[in-house]
Fold this protein.
Amino acid sequence: MLPEALPGMKRTRAEGERAAARGVNISKAEGQYQKEGSSVHISLMDMGTLSGMAAMATVGWAMAEIDKETETGYEKTSTYQGYKPHEEYSWKSQDGEVTVLVADRFVVEVRGNNLPM
């Protein structure tokens, strides 16, 4: 499910796992990509049987409106193509992440280090 490469970056690690407990099944795939001092980490999680409101509760920001800016960065929620992403970014360190809940079931998280947003 994870691409071999991102534009200008090679995948350096990929792994997946599946867990089940008390009737809840969760699957997760992760990949790490790097280039000259920069990296991107991608995580794809299928909340499986924990969908709808229960899945939204695990990503609390999905039910909130956040718009915060400081001298060093920002945190916000917005709407993109019908989905609600959560963004955090530090201008000074150029580290940030974007997380989105898709179809009330899938959590996609992308974290970057030493990269512009």
Summary: The chain has two domains: 1-46, 48-107. The mean pLDDT is 86. The first strand starts at residue 5 and ends at 6.
